[in-house]
């Protein structure tokens, strides 16, 4: 009987302790009960930070809905500034919390950090609900609490916790993996409180855990930025290496150089680079792989179903092919280039897009979003898919959606308040990867994490540091993942995957319309370029061994080329090659800068303005015939043949309407146009240059012509009238005179 009473008292006492602990966790107003311990902490009051700092990213478009907020929590902001991503048996736990009074003052209170050491998350939904504050998991083990002073509205204070490794709460964790972590503020009078949820991840180091094989993870950082060719007021005539004209902004160059330094810091960080980006940054760097040139959007190309529109714009398939990417690298580095993979830069990978990638030489593509819509419904598996297309098999390396979202500085949901800072996102990322490793049934897994080209270097650095500290992960290279051998799936599984892959690129109608307009503009500019090389350059004159050495005009203009033979056909080839390269970058950049003048526009304007009219000054004619000198200048090293069109806009003054003119290289040719004047008048003659197909290509030039025949015309008229009157008088006298009697 005594034993039963003793057991009953023990059960009652245990239930009382658990109940009080639960109350402390859920309604932290029971500090007076002595259940809250104090941890070593440092506090500092600072001004309120901006809403979105480098560690505090704005929610994405799909996360606009604000979560419900308890009235007692309004005006209170809690965020994680720093935290130990992976806890081992010797690391202890260190976390820094920012407490901010946003719009109302906060009274004195306490910040408390607690965990549930014995809890194991059972599903992804379980973890997501906890992250969003929608789960009632009790956090019974108090890691520490710190008293805070009152805060004025708009100010904040940092609270730092340094939990030693021998802390009882930490040592009570018997199983490795993610654990619920709560961070709570409550005022002394319990009228104000707020709590956010995060994760503490305990590694298997120092625990009696089964040694399971590590999970392979490949993290890929793209080195891609906006680049373009430098075209100013004239066309470079020594363009045998057109990539030397590539440039990018100082900020973009700085970002690329930082990425290269980061890749050297983290040996397992994989890089996939655009060769043009490296050239524009003047960076000698060997990435893990190369992507399609300029990050060309293959999904948009497949959506268009109009190969001719791209070709007429100067963007042939060969421009963004895998072969072209390899050739650029070999020409630059004179060494064997890494493999080329197609990188997702815009629309999602559809079956049509995969087919186009395969036809253009890409056997492997990388997907930056969840390629398989059914992937989140089952236990984690390899992010590797072998897709059969009409052009052949394509291997798709698909990024893991949750991990990649967090790695790129975005919370999994706007209601996951603990993930609004970098440290909070790292907590979730590490915890999520540990959960994936523990998912059953266990199979060898190789997952992919992709960074965005816009992700900050500091975010990537923090992510890689956390992944490197995770002993359940084995960071692998991109080549190994691409070459992973997989068992052939049964027919029904392949059908399921084909139904799950994207059937739409998700490119908006407005974006597609902008792209079509850009293609039309590029096609128009390329037609102008073709007119120049086909109907303006004088190939017959240029086929001779022409040099400007000793030429008087060339010497005077300091453009003489000693012992230089001009090959116009080679220059024609490079002019078209330069334009096609410009067109590719213009199309890619159009979605980034819609308001600026395109480089293709500047290129064609500069190309055609190299041949110009030097119009004469105003002309005064004093006779019925006159001459008008017009000078045509050719700034190119190659002879040209054009038509000079002159229009007087008057019948009284006429001249030759069209005159064929040959202008030697780097020279000026003067054309003398005859004028025929029938009366006194004045008019403006307009000059325009035309190609040999009689299409105008220059800006109109004008000259005023004035005839001074007014006095001569009046005198002649008077004389004629006077002579006519005399004739009439003579006739009258002849018929009316009387005969002399002597006759």
From TrEMBL:
Transmembrane annotation, as ranges: 715-732
InterPro entries linked: DUF6049
Keywords: Membrane, Transmembrane, Transmembrane helix
Taxonomy, superkingdom: Bacteria
Keyword field contains Transmembrane helix: yes
Pfam families: DUF6049
Keyword Transmembrane helix (UniProt): yes
Organism the protein comes from: Gardnerella vaginalis
Protein name: Uncharacterized protein
